[in-house]
Amino acid sequence: xxxxxxxxxxxxxxxxxxxxxxxxxxxxxxxxxxxxxxxxxxxxxxxxxxxxxxxxxxxxxxxxxxxxxxxxxxxxxxxxxxxxxxxxxxxxxxxxxxxxxxxxxxxxxxxxxxxxxxxxxxxxxxxxxxxxxxxxxxxxxxxxxxxxxxxxxxxxxxxxxxxxxxxxxxxxxxxxxxxxxxxxxxxxxxxxxxxxxxxxxxxxxxxxxxxxxxxxxxxxxxxxxxxxxxxxxxxxxxxxxxxxxxxxxxxxxxxxxxxxxxxxxxxxxxxxxxxxxxxxxxxxxxxxxxxxxxxxxxxxxxxxxxxxxxxxxxxxxxxxxxxx
Length: 324
What we know:
The chain is mainly alpha-helical. It has one domain: CATH 1.10.3470.10. 77% of the residues lie in helices and 1% in strands. It has helices spanning 2-24, 32-40, 45-79, 91-104, 112-131, 139-163, 166-176, 186-202, 204-211, 214-219, 224-246, 252-262, 268-292, 301-323, and strands spanning 132-133, 136-137. A two-stranded antiparallel sheet has the order 1-2.
């Protein structure tokens, strides 16, 4: 436990470090000296505007990264598989389809959280119901079903883009690739993050028992069916909120929880807060890289996470097959 507490303390320090880097880097030539002036309140109006925009974007990035990381951690313990995460299982795609449909129908942006949640929950139920066989799930069947459902959502998104106007298409494409430049619903995202974290941390003990297997957890008095429902709803709410804020950003829920387990964080009482801290910090840094790599042109942050996540996913997949 002492080792896990030390690791958690180190991750706490990662948040301000990543935030300072995000504030100090970008397409505008404003660095650490101007940042110090901004923090002390002595900066001019232009510098203050730049840093305010960067700060708002960093906050949104932290919320989205934390939500995706926690969702991945919950899905991985439910399936006892490190390859499970919202993007791969098609949950993000479902949220994206319903959100784009609502926008095409002319609904205001205030409907985005609700439509995203409906799509994420529907996609979750669809994947798990199709994967259910002989009273249980098999990991291979679930992952294959998730990939197929995700491909179906991708086709639906392509259709929606085809029938959209030229003006709508450009914004939709950036949103679909994962973009924090026009992020919204910050307050809603923060509330959902706090609520889902509290509920997830409250069931940390059952999650630890679930790691040993569903039969052992049930033998120790846990209600497995209720626990599944709670995890489904939590994962759908986390994914839907992140999609409504920044579009479809993949592989954060895959990279972060698995990396935390590799460094020794396996107890969910420590893994969940660590997922929040490291997932949020990771997306802040990824967005800072997206803003500076081809400055002044900005890359959607989803492109950066995919570039990092795809090789990690392939390595995990190869490792899993070798272990069998």
